[in-house]
Design goal:
Blueprint: E1 3-8, H1 17-26, E2 34-38, H2 41-49, E3 54-57
Antiparallel strand pairs: 1-2, 1-3
Helix pairs in contact: 1-2
Length: 58
């Protein structure tokens, strides 16, 4: 299955708890960390929820 790379670009300090948990469930712990996850509707929804904290890397 296809995958997408996600990079955390902003800190989660000050973000609501649900957004912090979303970052953790995506596997992101530090700024500039890049993770590769499967391209599923649930993962896309999580990326959309924290779109201001992450970017999709090509």
């Amino acid at each position: 299955m296809a995958t997408i790379k996600i990079k955390q670009i902003k800190s989660r300090i000050g973000a609501p708890i649900d957004q912090k948990r979303t970052l953790l469930s995506l596997g992101l712990h530090k700024i500039s960390q890049v993770v590769e996850v499967e391209d599923t509707p649930s993962n896309r929804g999580m990326v959309r929820k924290v779109h201001h904290l992450v970017e999709v890397v090509k």
